[in-house]
């Protein structure tokens, strides 16, 4: 039995602390960790359990923008009397006021009422956004209790627009995005960026205040003319009236000097403000989070069309390149402003310069066009393709390193890498020399104009027809215009560099998702479940929870293999009651995995349906073992992170590990629990030591933060460091069991396992089967027997490589030749409901072992 000691702090507070739990009894019923803490068992729980349950009809709903959406609720139990609870929407990625209307209120179930709706208006948005979601939460139950898991549901909102605009939706949907003019696409992208909340005023302020730099250049030109013509020319009858400080050229010079200093100060201040406004960062954040959300909702087809390396590149690099383009556009705007200002200055001070003002830009534009057209020097192929090839190759090599090493292919990979890197290098040289050859003209133009101007206009200065200040300022203008044109051209090139990432990102963000399929499946399941419930409620029998009698059905289920005309199976018709352990067998390639994926909703049927009651959470556990590069506890509670804060859940998790004989994982989990507890206490003590935070501090600490330290905090770094490399300390079979334990901790109502015994020897298979049996018979592993009746039945489907004569299975679905799926009963097992009744119409009510 687990033990727990109380700890008395110096402030007299008693903190319960979990210590290493070495001797958990192998029994369904287990004791609380702390002898004084019986809050999760006992009479209070038992009486609470008699109450009806109110919960959502599904864990996830899918809405469409612009519709008035209805979230479905269900009441389970005796349906006697009036019960109610409150509800409210809670924003997550979708925000109230932009994606939906915040709604809250009371939902009442009158006597006999077993279903209700909550209406939530979904807002129409004219611009593109990724699939955003919000939550609906039930609270304050009156005369009832809330479903443990379904007191919260998520609502995903499908956005029908295409990225970056619906203007090109036809081209985008026809997969011909390359046909759209890149410049037009870019303009639409810029428009979208201005619609990101908070971006439009930031962009307006940036465009306006970036002109400060031009105002400074204007000031330097005007002031140098003024210094030469007025300050130094003081005393002549023409200029004496124009001094800022009348008759005092020295003081006037000091004022101008002061202005010279003040302007850069102002510019510096603006730069500080601009950094703080972080327009680039905001665009990058929008793009990256949208891309991540989109990728998370990708359909199987979309996911197979992009490589891992591409996803990383798009989300980290291309999004950053594209986001930077907003700064490039504002710089271009600034350059344009400067060009207009310089030309105006030249003409206003010296009207004879109109010819130069026109000739210079025309010559440059002409040269640019010739350069772009390849008439100056042939444009080489870009390096982008080769860069991408190299990145993809590195991705493939790192992904498949163990294979490469085991097959002694490291030298071959090095050679192939070197060949690709050399190819990239070869393409970089012509590009650099192309830039040099074609851009020299911009640098040469200023000396050409200055030389001509000096040669032809100096006599005018000598004869007094042209003021010296104006002459010198005009020379500066030539230099400025020339360098400005170089800057402008460079800016244009930078903006154009964003075109390619924009096209790639547009393709990425317009790939198909599975949200529409999810909507169809959820809507079908909810409607079908309601229909079944209405029928059942007319004649509920003596069951307290008739809803649990809705079977899981395959209705005329057919699957056509992609890209072929062949059906893998056709019109499958099967039904199994909730609360059964179902084994799926058949020859290699008969369709077991496909059926498993259909059951989990991972694959869409060609026709027919899989009908699982909507309020049952389905979880697919793949045959491929995944362990996240986080801590053991974060892996174990991955499916339901918030439950880690509950002592009973942590205890249950340790029990599950014990039952699966996962000694090493249990040791690691215990160490992590112990570490998180003590580091929480140290943090509390140090806080108390440093400031006036009193002993209340621990109670105020966010429990979630206590058990799952936030990324970037010292506690997170310490825990991560302590458990670095923990995965490699697990045996192969223990890893496979951890992959399964994670699912048992989440405790879904329908557990779907893809070949779970594939990685296990006979003994371990036996252990796992015993735990799966418990999962089904006890409606969850390591859960209290007394509350069994009030938990929803657990059903488990698993595919097996071979018929195992497994005595723990309730039902066997076997694929026969020709794609037939037949049901056969396994050998009778005392735990199996099939042993007591040949009918599977009732869910098992096992009373423990
Ligand atoms: N995308 C696809 N295109 C064409 N055929 C496919 C595709 N996916 C699966 N198949 C075929 O469908 C059949 C069923 O595949 P499935 O993975 O369900 O088999 P299985 O019963 O799990 O077999 P095994 O026990 O060998 O894993 C196989 O013959 C497979 O080759």
TrEMBL record:
GO BP: cell communication
Domain ABC transporter: residue ranges: 552-842
Keyword Membrane belongs to the record: yes
Compartments, record wording: Membrane
Principal cellular location given in the protein's record: membrane
InterPro entries: ABC1_TM_sf, ABC_transporter-like_ATP-bd, CalX-like_sf, Calx_beta, P-loop_NTPase, Type_1_exporter
GO CC, one annotated term: membrane
Pfam families per record: ABC_tran (PF00005), Calx-beta (PF03160)
UniProt KW keywords: Calcium, Membrane, Repeat, Signal, Transmembrane, Transmembrane helix
Keyword Repeat: yes
Transmembrane segments: 215-232, 252-270, 441-462
An MF annotation (GO) of this entry: ATPase-coupled lipid transmembrane transporter activity
Residues covered by region (Disordered): 822-849
PANTHER family: ATP-BINDING CASSETTE SUB-FAMILY B, ATP-BINDING CASSETTE SUB-FAMILY B MEMBER 6
Designated name of the protein: ABC transporter domain-containing protein
Organism: Effrenium voratum
